[in-house]
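Worked example 2:
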Amino acid sequence: MDHSPVSARVVAKVVLIVAAVVAGLYFAYLIREVIGLFLIAVFFAVAITPAVNWLNHRRVPRWVAILLVYLSIAASIFGIGLLIVPPVVNGVTDISDDLPGYVDDLRHNETFRDYDNRYHITDKLREQAQELPNKLGDAAGTLRDVTVGVFNRFVQLFSILVITFFLVKDGHRLLDFLYQQAPPERARRLRKIAVDISDAIAGYVFGNFVISILAGLVTYVTLRILGVPFAVPLAILFGFFDLIPLVGATLGGILVGIVVGLVSFPVGLIVWAAVLILYQQVENNLIQPYVYGRAVELHPLIVIAAILIGAALLGVLGALMAIPAAAAVQAVVRDYWRFRHGEEPPPAASEAPAEAG
C-alpha cells in the first residue's frame, strides 16, 4: 500500500492551528471576567427589550426608552429598599431589646414549657439575648465590609449598563450585518434561532417576575391573617428569594418562619409551614411548569439539570441564568435537527425580539 508522505506545509499548518486554538482559549481565560460581564449584558438586554420596544412603538426615541426603563428599574429597587430596610433595622433593634421578654413569654406556653424543662432552651436563649447587642455590632461591621464590596462592583455594574444600552439601541443593526454575511438560507435559520432565544429569555424573565409577585402576595396575606408584624418587607423578602430556582422559596420560607415563630409559636409557625409547603407544591407542579413550558419549552428534567450546573459554575447568578441558557442551547440543537432532517422551520412570529442584539 502506498503511503504519501505528509508535507512540511501540512504539518506546519496543523501546528499553527493548534497553537492558535490554545492561544485563543488562554486569551479567553484571561478575559473571562469581561466575557462574563458581556454575557450578563446580553441577558439583561434581551430581558428589557420588550419594554423598550413597547415605548419605542409609541414614538418614544429608542435611547430615551432605554433610559426610562433604567430609571424604572432603579426606582423599583429604591422603593423596595425603602419598604424593607427601615422596618428591618427598627425591627432588629426592637427584637434585641424585647427578646428577653419574648423568652419569658414562651414559658407560658405549656407545650414549649415541657420541651424547655428537658432541654433548657430559655436559659440558652437568655444567654444569646445578652450577647445580641455585641453580635449586632459585629454584624454592622460585616455590613460595612459588604457595602464597600458593593461599591467596588459599581464599575462592573456601570459597564454592564453601558454595554446593555448599546446592545438594545443598535443590536439589531449588528445582527442584520451578521445576517448579510451569510447565505440567505443560513441567514433565515440564524434569524429564527435569535428570535427563539430572545422569546425564551424574555418569557422566562417575565414569568419568573409574575411568580415572585404571586409568592409575595401569598406571604403577605398569610402574615396579615396571623398578625405577624413587618408583613410587607417579609413578603417582599420572600418574593425576592423566590426568584432563585429550586431552593429560593425554601430559604425565604425559613427566614419568614423564624419571625413567625417568635411572634406566634406554635400555632402561627405550623400555619406558615403548612401554607409554605402547599404553595411550593402548587408552584412547582402547576405554576412553574405552565410558565416555563410556554416561555422556554423545556422538559422539567432539563430545567433541574441546567439549574444545578449553573449553580455549580456561577452560584446564584448561574442558577438564575441556567434556564434561558438551556433554552438557547435547545434552540440551536432544534435548528440543527431540523436542518439534518430536511424539515422546514416555522416562520418567526415577530422580528422585534431580534433587536435585543
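The chain has two domains: 34-181, 203-347. Residues 203-347 form one domain.
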